[in-house]
Design brief:
The chain is mainly α and 352 residues long. Helix content is 52%, strand content 7%. It has a 3-stranded antiparallel sheet, with no helix packed on it. Helix 3 crosses helix 13. It is elongated. The structure holds zinc ion. Zinc ion binds next to loops.
């Protein structure tokens, strides 16, 4: 058998094993939470333990239970859902959402399609739920955590999103992210600009210094600098290639005023081995369950990967506890989410 065929075979085996594992964990979930009622009871218990059953209107904790989900405030006499204002606010399929948390918290590697099938919900709903929990996990990650350039994951950017430029490959989103990052970081731009300038030859520097924001003709340069045509032409060509000057009309040249310099360090630097291992693991994780993703959501899939990779930190209990402390996360926030250029990688099990 060729190596490619055997790779494909082992990937298929892995996928089948993942599927069987998902089914087994889903079975355990169904036994424990056969209906929506058991899920809401479980939530109610954990909210009560944390002292989170308070009136949504006046914050009073003097409340009485009316039915499964609603309470009445003894102070202002209004009725409210105990999940109001929480992560579970306005969630129609509480059981499916709990199921997603169950699978993620048990480190199960699953596809949104398979989860949708098991939970009896639409695939788009299933994807939205996983992203919602992932966004929550991302938001609980410490700002001081290590980051990695998202270009290390470019291999899996094969799906389009709202950020993909028209008529371009989904991977073009990476270029847009880099340009935006640089455009918003003057110090990076200045450093890149200075690096370009320091790499110039003495003739190129002379020509560059002589040009300004008002166009100058090549002939005039020749006279003013007292240099040969071929020398000036060569210098002008390399300055133009470097993006330091621009041709306006005919043989007129200017220094562009608002030029974004994209430092060459993005995407083609040498990656330290431990970072390379990390990005390879995430790439393999994504490929095994869904082939590829849109760059826009990379950070969310890294959060999903953390549930799988850091078993000690992201169990069912810790995800639920983060959910209880979180405000609602609406679909519009997920849609508006864009992976930053440098992604947070999270902490992995140190013992692993
Ligand atoms: Zn009240």
């Amino acid at each position: 058998m060729s190596r490619m065929a055997s790779d494909a075979g082992s990937k298929k085996q892995e996928r089948l094993a993942d599927r069987a594992n998902t089914i087994s964990f889903w079975g355990a979930f169904e036994t424990r939470f056969p209906t929506e009622v058991e899920c809401i009871q479980e939530l109610l218990m954990s909210f009560a333990e944390d002292g989170l059953i308070v009136c949504h209107f006046c914050n009073s904790s003097k409340t009485q239970k009316v039915d499964l989900r609603s309470f009445k405030c003894n102070d202002c006499k209004k009725y409210f859902f105990f999940t109001a204002g929480s992560f579970f606010d306005h969630v129609r399929h509480i059981r499916a959402l709990m199921g997603a948390i169950w699978l993620l918290g048990n480190g199960v590697r699953f596809s949104a399609c398979h989860f949708a099938e098991l939970a009896g919900i639409a695939k788009s709903t299933a994807t939205g739920m996983v992203k919602k929990v992932a966004l929550l996990i991302y938001r609980t990650m410490n700002d001081a955590e290590d980051t990695l350039n998202s270009s290390e994951f470019a291999k899996i950017f094969i799906r389009r999103s709202l950020c993909t430029p028209a008529l371009e490959h989904p991977r073009a989103e990476q270029r847009c992210a880099e340009e935006e990052y640089v455009a918003n970081s003057p110090e990076v731009q200045i450093a890149a600009h200075n690096e370009l300038l320091s790499g110039l030859s003495s003739i190129e520097t002379t020509v560059y210094n002589h040009l300004s924001s008002s166009p100058q003709h090549l002939d005039a340069l020749e006279v003013q600098l007292n240099m040969e045509t071929r020398v000036i032409s060569a210098a002008v060509s390399s300055l133009e290639l470097a993006g330091l000057i621009e041709r306006t009309s005919g043989d007129n040249y200017v220094r562009p005023q608002h030029k974004i310099f994209v430092p060459a360090l993005f995407g083609n630097r040498d990656c330290p081995p431990e970072e390379e291992i990390y990005s390879h693991s995430v790439v393999a994780f994504v490929q095994s369950s869904m082939h590829g993703i849109a760059r826009k959501y990379l950070q969310l899939y890294i959060a999903v990967y953390l549930c799988f990779a850091n078993r000690r930190k992201w169990g069912v209990g810790s995800i639920l506890s983060a959910c209880r402390r979180s405000k609602p996360i609406y679909l519009s926030e997920i849609e508006a989410f864009v992976t930053p250029l440098f992604v947070k990688v999270g902490r992995l099990d140190s013992a692993a």
